[in-house]
Amino acid sequence: MQNYTKKHIKSLKPSATLAINEKCKKLREDGKKVFNFGFGGSPFSIPDKIVSALKDNAHKKEYLPSVGLRDLREAIAKYINRNSNSGRPVNWNTNFRQEDIIIGPGTKQLMFLLQLGFEGDFIFPTGSWVSYEPQAIIAKNKVHWLETSRENNWFPKPEQIEQKIKNIKNKDIILFLNSPNNPTGAVCKNLKEIAEVAKKHKIIILSDEIYTQLQFDEKYNSISEYYPEGTIISSGLSKWLGAGGWRLGFFAVPQKLRNILEMIKILSSESLSAVSAPIQYAAVEAFSNDYSDYLNKTRNILFSVGNYVYTKLKSNKVLITPPQGGFYIMPEFLNLKFKTSQQMCDDILNKTGVALLPGSDFGFKKSRMLARLSYTDFDGDLFLKNISGSKKLDNDFIERYAPNIVEGTKKLSEWSKSL
Predict the structure, then answer these.
(1) Cβ–Cβ contacts within 10 Å for residue 55, how many?
(2) How is the chain split into domains, by residue range?
(3) Residue 145 parent element (H or E)
(4) pLDDT value at position 89?
(5) pLDDT at 77
(6) Which residues make Cβ contacts (< 8 Å) with residue 43, sequence separation at least 6?
(7) Which of 287, 358, 365 is nearest to 78 (CA)?
(8) Does domain 59-288 have CATH number 3.40.50.20?
(9) Residue 8, pLDDT score
(10) Contacts of 258 (CB under 8 A, 6+ apart)
């Protein structure tokens, strides 16, 4: 049979996160006990008021502008400005307008259009979200990797970035920065220093802030506060609101990068038409009103469950950093038994039923025994109904409402002791 696939796409495989979720579903359908620590989806339902807004706008059937509903873009601009200027003097450069916002079917598609249209090179720190590099391959972009380490909280040092920039022939560069980070669960502590290097060399930063509202210290940290003219903010509804299936994300693009926004607008109009109208109208409610109570509770649960996993798993055979935000931690298993992290994760799944993603899916060397662990395999709604306040939840509470997390962590810990 003739293969009609373009040569540079033949090496690609389905998205690792989606693939592991489907694999876990299939194993469960076959009657096997599986602990899905591989997929990074929110376990919490969307707040009722936002769901009601979707129902109320279900009759909206018109095509909306390809850049998005104006009311939604205005709400997002105010949302970003309110968060990024919190507790700081208002800097006009950090104030986005509705015309600086573009809506897409998730940030994934907007990132793809950025990669497709940008004439330049890309820098990705390890670990990077699983779709950054495949999108670069599709777009035939040149990628430069920055090695990170646990000692530096899994983020690159400014001098690393500067040296990398100097070694790149093409000076039109976009650096992707994701904090809180997927896959490590770490938060970048040196945003200002990184911003200074980026500004000095006039490179662009794509700040992937999809997990920012789930930062456990409750601080909204954006590198755009230090480098507003050169930072594109990327975020959406999927993580903090539990609305991954709604497929709504946005880019906020500063005025000095207007040509990039115009490029994405054109590509969007020729490929996406527009995001579903009812979802855009409902999203106005999400970005306009106060959902701090919902966020405080979900953050508290994620913080408590994440720290439970960290405490139970860390040992002299498992190196691990406490979670700082999002859904993830990234254990490193000390052993010489496996050649690749994929082999290790396959062995873990076969022997324990615990599904993890190998560090190699996030840009780390295959020989490093790193794995991403998502601690979201529990009934988030049941958890929410039974907590009040923001007090850290004790182990008894977690054992009652997150039994899969407890059992899976125990099995994984026992597996690590056999190394």
Answers:
(1) 10
(2) 7-45+292-417, 59-288
(3) strand 143-146
(4) 39
(5) 96
(6) 242, 376, 377, 378, 379, 380, 383
(7) 287
(8) no
(9) 87
(10) none
Instruction: Give the pLDDT score at 183.
Output: 96
Instruction: Report the pLDDT value the prediction gives residue 109, as an integer from 0 to 100.
Output: 96
Asked whether 213 and 236 are in contact (CB, 8 A), the reply is no
The Cα diameter of the chain in Å comes to 64
For helices 191-201 and 158-166, angle between their N-to-C axes, nearest 10 degrees: 20
Which regions of the chain are under pLDDT 50? 86-93
The residue assigned the tokens 């794509």 is 206
Please classify residue 166 by burial: count the beta carbons closer than 10 Å to its beta carbon, then call 0-12 exposed, 13-18 middle and 19+ buried. exposed
Please, what CATH class does the domain formed by 7-45+292-417 belong to?
A: alpha beta
Please check whether the two domains, 7-45+292-417 and 59-288, share a CATH topology: no
**Selection from 250, 213, 197, 222 nearest residue 325 by Cα:** 213
On the CB side of 374, how many CA atoms lie within 13 Å of its CA?
Answer: 24
pTM (whole model) above 0.85: yes
What gap in Å lies between CA 204 and CA 257, rounded to an integer? 9
HSE (side-chain half, CA atoms, 13 Å) at 207: 28
DSSP 378: S
For residue 285, give the amino acid letter: E
Chain centroid offset of residue 93 CA: 25
Query: Which pLDDT belongs to residue 335?
Result: 77
Token pair 């770490």: residue: 186
Residue 264 is encoded by which pair of tokens? 């994405």
- Distance (Å, rounded) from C-alpha 389 to C-alpha 326? 19
